[in-house]
Write a structure and sequence with these properties.
156 residues; 62% helix; 2 strands; mainly alpha; two-stranded antiparallel sheet
Length: 156
Amino acid sequence: MRTRVHGDYHLGQVLFTGDDFVIIDFEGEPARPLSERRSKSSPLQDVAGMLRSFHYAAYVPLLAEISGREVTQERLNALDFWAQYWQTWVSATFLKAYLRTSGSASFVPQSREELAVLLDAYVITKAVYELGYELNNRPSWVRIPLQSVSKLLDAA
């Protein structure tokens, strides 16, 4: 099942008002053609976008820590461990809440295997898009989407 989706859903599009959250900027991914942004898609595409955003939130501080200064391999390993830990738990918590809220909606595959395949496909599609974006705009961040692509391909 497909419907209209946000199309560029990530942490930067979610604002906390003090007692609630507001989602902003429903224009979709700016680099994509308008016709593609207006097309209906699976809401799980937005879930994948948020999962990718958690990866960035975990690893951007790590990049800042290691840029421009000497960092021991031991410290780098510790930072990487905690970044992976945080990303895994935040992603799992988000996905669990999303699936609990969506219940048995027709756009959510009923088997865990089908859900995993669909989410992995959307996550890798988003990571490949990010790879192109980072190559053109922030080459020092290329390792973030590249890490995700590599991990997903290894798992496959």
